[in-house]
């Protein structure tokens, strides 16, 4: 075993000197670029962006293959924003990338430092000097939880300062020499990379920053690297864990590495042999995992291991159905349970050559939508709450199997709901900025279905994209009309760069 895990490149051996009382998430935290379990493409994207600062930080011109701005002296986007749900390793990724590229990471937690002046002072100190402690290497600033900096309604001076820094152009070598010989620049440019970390990129305080930052969305860790990391931790801690139990733990935590490691450490204090039942019991008491709803889904898609006579099958099914109803009602998140059923029933194995089961379950989904709309959304008929559990119970006799059915979290529905919320917030914010006369004519609903579709068509006339001097005389009034409409409705175009270097115009907001 020692030969198997005693490899030089093992991330776990780098922490052999840590105390037994340390948290495992810190004890087995990645230390090198190759230790990361996040997506390789995301890791490379962040590293390439940081390497584009080589000229400003080290005086080295970036490689000609780097997708940097004109002149290959700096990145097109001066700030990088890492966004994604908690537990994906965003902060660890930023620290490791910084060291891999030769920087000393300097972290600022925007949620802890509530005043913009405090953060500005710390930021200015770091950007105008090398590393405060340790080797004399340039600093890479990591601003964590930036979406929570002013959640309470504080000022936005800090965000405005970041935007100002990002919009200040970097000098070329010739411009730098002329500036050194002559007058100093009025506004100091940003000469060090800044990585901002947030959970919600659509937070209202981050709206100005989104226009000047390169946004990288962290994806959940895939099952294979997550399971390998958990297995290696179990080997180092002398834990005996079933592979099926680790897979179940990963799925129950929605592939949250931090929550999975914390669960294993908690179980290790009670037993050295971990199985499915022990993980189920621990997850039922957990606070940072969505275990209760996974427990319900497992009950719905898994048949009970009944070693009984045929005469008892009816009674067994009746008792198990009663157990399902109680489990669903105890969870009480009916909408999420149905979303999970909708996401997973096409994935499970079942026999139905005539395709009758999907038709039947579609009717149950429709019945749930009607019940939920009457009980919660529209009429608030609380008497119907008692019936909301039964459409989900219908999944069991149709799609439950005797073998373990892999359950996934309903990401499709969550993603669609998140996009809908962000679009509604954007629409509401845009409507509030319209002239008072327009706002009085259109409610939020009518703005969405009557104003926006036709307005987009009106401001997109069939005019060729040519030089303004070559526009035909009869087309000029149409252009002026479009410009006037866009100004009065707060619409404008912003120029952005694609990954291949091509520019395009995006309509804002």
UniProtKB/TrEMBL annotation:
<keyword id="KW-0539">Nucleus</keyword>
<keyword id="KW-0131">Cell cycle</keyword>
<dbReference type="InterPro" id="IPR003959">
    <property type="entry name" value="ATPase_AAA_core"/>
</dbReference>
<keyword id="KW-0238">DNA-binding</keyword>
<dbReference type="GO" id="GO:0016887">
    <property type="term" value="F:ATP hydrolysis activity"/>
</dbReference>
<keyword id="KW-0378">Hydrolase</keyword>
<dbReference type="InterPro" id="IPR053016">
    <property type="entry name" value="CTF18-RFC_complex"/>
</dbReference>
<keyword id="KW-0547">Nucleotide-binding</keyword>
<protein>
    <submittedName>
        <fullName>P-loop containing nucleoside triphosphate hydrolase protein</fullName>
    </submittedName>
</protein>
<dbReference type="GO" id="GO:0005634">
    <property type="term" value="C:nucleus"/>
</dbReference>
<keyword id="KW-0067">ATP-binding</keyword>
<dbReference type="InterPro" id="IPR047854">
    <property type="entry name" value="RFC_lid"/>
</dbReference>
<comment type="similarity">
    <text>Belongs to the activator 1 small subunits family. CTF18 subfamily.</text>
</comment>
<dbReference type="GO" id="GO:0005524">
    <property type="term" value="F:ATP binding"/>
</dbReference>
<keyword id="KW-0235">DNA replication</keyword>
<dbReference type="InterPro" id="IPR003593">
    <property type="entry name" value="AAA+_ATPase"/>
</dbReference>
<feature type="domain" description="AAA+ ATPase">
    <location>
        <begin position="76"/>
        <end position="222"/>
    </location>
</feature>
<dbReference type="GO" id="GO:0003677">
    <property type="term" value="F:DNA binding"/>
</dbReference>
<dbReference type="Pfam" id="PF00004">
    <property type="entry name" value="AAA"/>
</dbReference>
<dbReference type="InterPro" id="IPR027417">
    <property type="entry name" value="P-loop_NTPase"/>
</dbReference>
<dbReference type="GO" id="GO:0006260">
    <property type="term" value="P:DNA replication"/>
</dbReference>
